[in-house]
Structure formats: C-alpha cells, structure tokens
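Q: What residues go here?
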C-alpha cells in the first residue's frame, strides 16, 4: 500500500516559543518528517521566535541537534536535512515588549498562508495576539495555533477565548489536542461511521459498558512543577480522555466537516452527568524500581495532586442513558497502553442452555500495537457436545496494512499540516473547551472543599485497588493494562 502525500500550499509558519521543549521535541522534528515526505512546498518557511538572542545559523544548529535527538531515528535522503534547515529563520522577540516585532513583520510574505503557533504558556496568548494585530501581521486568512492547557478552569478558559476573539475569528483559531492527531483516534470515526456492522448496536440497548484507558509508564519526571498544579484531571481527562469519550459516544455527524463533527462532540459533553464523589478514585504513585514517588518528583511532600484517576461517567441522552463509561488514566502504571473497549450485553436467551457468561467485546487499541480486536463466541472444537468458547478476531494494523499500518505519522505533524490546509476538524472549538471545563470544575472544587487525599499505588502496578473495587461494586472488571 502506498501513502498518498498531498503537498500543501506555500506558507510562513512562525513558532513562538521556537526554542522550547515542545518545539524541539515535537514540532520541528515533525515538520522535518513532512519535508522528507515531500509535503512541504519549496518556498515554505519556518520562523522560530523566542526570547533568546541568536541568529538563523544558531537556530539551525539548535534544530539540527533536536532532530538528531528527537527525530525518532527516521532519516531522509542525503542532503535533505540541509534543505530543511535552509527554510528556518529566527527572530529574537519579546512577547510583552516591542523588541523583534518589526523584524518579524518585515519577514512575513503577503501571498502565502500565514500561521502563528503559540507554543508558549497561556498567559502569553493575549499578548501575542494583540501584538500580531498591532503590527499588521494578520488578515482574515491568517491562523493561530494554541497549545493545551487551554486555561485551568472555566473562568480562565473563557477569558482566553475572549482575548483571542478580540483579534481572531473562531475560524482562525486552532486549539490543539494532540490525541485528535493520532492515527488510531481518527480510526474511531472510521470504524464507527464507515461500517454497517457496529452502528446499529452502538447504544445502551446492546452495550453494557465502555472502558477508556490511557495508561502510561512514565512518571512526571522533570515536569513536576507544572504537573503538580494540574493533576491527571486537568492534564489528561479534561482534554484527551474527553475527546476519546466524545468520539466514541457522539451521534453520527451529517458529514465529516469541522462544525458538523464538533457540534456532535459538544452535545456529548453537555449531556455528561455530574460525577458523584464515590464514582471517582484518585491515586498517587509511590517510589519503586522505576523511580522516586510522586510527591518527591512534584517537590512537595504533602502534595494532594493525583497522578491517577478512574471514574464512572454517565451520559444522559437517548442513546446512552443506563450505559456507564469507565475512564481511567495514570502515570507509572504497569504498561503503556491506551485502549477503548466496548463490552456488549449478554444474550437475552441462550439456546445452548447453561453456559458461562459470553459476550462480545470490541477493543480498539490506540497505542502501542494499534489495532482492533473483536471477541466472538464459537463452538469449542472437538466432540463432547456444544460447549462455547470466546476467541479474538484480531486485526493488528501493522499486520493488515504492512508498513503503512505501523509507520504512524506523528500527531503533531498531521495537525500542523491541517492548519496549513485550513482544516479545523481535528481541533477543539472554543465552546467545546468551555463545556469540558464546566463539567470538570465542580469535580475539582469538590476535592478542594473536602480536602480529598489521593490513594497511593505502587509504581508499575495497575493503579489503586479502590479503582478495582469501584467496578466490582457494579459487578464489572477493568481490562488488564497490557501493551
Ligand atoms: C500530554 C500530557 O498532553 O499528553 C502528558 O501533558 C502526557 O502528561 C501526554 O504524558 C501523553 O501523550 P502520548 O501521546 O504520549 O499518549
């Protein structure tokens, strides 16, 4: 199978925070891969803008190092790296002052797509937007890209939306949630809406419950200071897990276009029930062979921030009332494994008499080992009567699709190309983000008000035992966290 690479229009992409961690780890190595794939037109330019004083040669050297370190070992033909580096420019800039803005304005071309990537903390979003406008660097075709976290609660997200709306129309604002750029996350939509098989059964009449797991083996490491102010709820649930929940639960959009898809996602978020305190388990990892405990890494021996969360969520709408969604995510768990599992109900009558509980289970593995498994019930081979057994119908994309199935384009590179193309389907709309915070805020406020202390769990385990008990109370079990 051959990947199709459709070149994008010429562009000037300015990366504010162009020397930062995200730019070096993800954005620039991703752009390099798109260059290698032949997707970047000859006259595309990438302009790093940051506080540090350096010239274009210094910036090219910095990015060459970043590509060597974070490029994932993917190499292009000889000479290609130089060709990519030639496209890089650099402007030292002061986001809150005047330094550098006139130079940057002088560099921008009129006849190409202009995109501005705000790879900086949200406190600078308003300053950047205002200066871009004051220096006449935007028109109605310009785009801005903003990173998560988009606020830390509803009030701050509203304020950010308002700031950006002063200078940009919603159609120009690309709020990134990199989970939406993952190949298999988009596959959720393909599986649901590209097959006749699943959609008729995709409701509370046939689905017993759905599990969404995003398990990580890494701890918070050097990000302790940021993370301790966020916790798993703000860092993962409000955005990444929420997006997965929306894609799995939404009504079919009338077409695959930005607002049709985002309208349906928004309806799901608005239909989420408030979560009862006893339907949430928060956890914090302890020290283990894998490294120090959470509190040590966070630099606060009394920290009450959660590095793990498991919750039972209800959706009050016609399709899903009565079907619980169990969400969990955590750091320093047993394996890196993200998976969505749809557990169907038992048959209402078995013609085979008393048999063990047999039910169909559809699991969609997001990472690693991307693929889909459908558990089906068949006859156990051999004589001796009709005994039933469950077997997996397994499709691992790498096996089924060859190189294309395994060689996943990184989420960031895909999303940046979508920005250049002007396609907002895989970006969050302002009202979606606000609705997600409106649901999240009371949960976090409740913990603060009650002085809730997370349960501890062993590094390398499957999380706190309380999470197991939460499902046991509903006579259900979590899927094993396995790669
Ligand atoms: C980020 C979070 O948004 O997503 C991190 O801030 C988390 O804490 C990361 O580790 C997970 O992303 P991925 O692509 O590795 O699953």
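A:
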């Amino acid at each position: 199978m051959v990947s199709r690479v459709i070149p994008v229009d010429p562009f000037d992409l300015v990366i504010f925070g162009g020397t930062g961690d995200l730019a070096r780890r993800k954005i620039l190595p991703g752009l390099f891969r798109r260059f290698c794939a032949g997707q970047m037109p000859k006259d595309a330019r990438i302009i790093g803008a940051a506080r540090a004083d350096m010239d274009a040669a210094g910036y090219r050297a910095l990015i060459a190092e970043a590509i060597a370190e974070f490029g994932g070992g993917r190499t292009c033909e000889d000479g290609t790296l130089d060709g990519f580096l030639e496209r890089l420019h650099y402007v030292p800039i002061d986001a809150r002052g005047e330094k550098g803005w006139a130079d940057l304005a002088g560099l921008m071309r009129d006849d190409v797509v202009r995109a501005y990537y705000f790879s900086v903390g949200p406190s600078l979003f308003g300053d950047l937007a205002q200066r871009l406008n004051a220096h006449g660097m935007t028109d109605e075709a310009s785009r801005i890209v903003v990173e998560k976290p988009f606020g830390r609660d509803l009030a701050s997200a509203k304020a950010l939306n308002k700031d950006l709306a002063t200078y940009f129309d919603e159609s120009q604002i690309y709020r990134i949630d990199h989970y939406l750029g993952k190949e298999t996350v988009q596959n959720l939509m393909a599986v649901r809406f590209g097959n006749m098989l699943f959609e008729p059964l995709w409701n509370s009449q046939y689905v017993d419950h759905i599990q969404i797991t995003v398990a990580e083996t890494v701890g918070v490491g050097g990000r302790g200071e940021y993370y301790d102010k966020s916790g798993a709820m703000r860092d993962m649930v409000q955005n990444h897990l929420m997006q997965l929940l929306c894609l799995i639960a939404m009504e079919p959009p009338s077409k695959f276009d930005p607002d049709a898809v985002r309208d349906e996602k928004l309806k799901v978020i608005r239909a989420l029930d408030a979560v009862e305190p006893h339907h949430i388990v928060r956890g914090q990892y302890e020290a283990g062979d894998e490294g120090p405990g959470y509190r040590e890494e966070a630099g606060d021996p009394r920290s009450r921030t959660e590095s793990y969360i498991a919750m039972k969520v209800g959706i009050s709408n016609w399709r899903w009332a009565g079907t619980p969604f169990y969400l969990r995510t955590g750091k320093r768990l047993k394996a890196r494994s993200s998976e969505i599992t749809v557990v169907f109900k038992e048959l209402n009558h078995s013609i085979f008499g008393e048999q063990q509980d047999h039910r169909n289970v559809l699991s969609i593995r997001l990472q690693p080992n991307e693929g889909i498994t459908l558990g089906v019930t068949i006859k156990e081979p051999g004589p001796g009567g009709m005994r039933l057994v469950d077997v997996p119908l397994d499709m691992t994309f790498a096996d089924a699709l060859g190189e294309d199935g395994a060689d996943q384009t990184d989420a960031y590179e895909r999303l940046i190309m979508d920005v250049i193309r002007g396609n907002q389907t895989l970006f969050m709309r302002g009202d979606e983000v606000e609705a997600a915070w409106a649901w999240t805020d009371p949960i976090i406020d409740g913990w603060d008000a009650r002085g809730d202390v997370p349960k501890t769990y062993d590094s390398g385990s499957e999380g706190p035992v309380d999470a197991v008990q939460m499902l046991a109370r509903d006579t259900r079990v979590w899927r094993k966290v396995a790669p």
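A: Context that may help when evaluating the design: The first strand starts at residue 11 and ends at 16. Residues 216, 235 surround 6-O-phosphono-beta-D-glucopyranose (CB under 6 Å).
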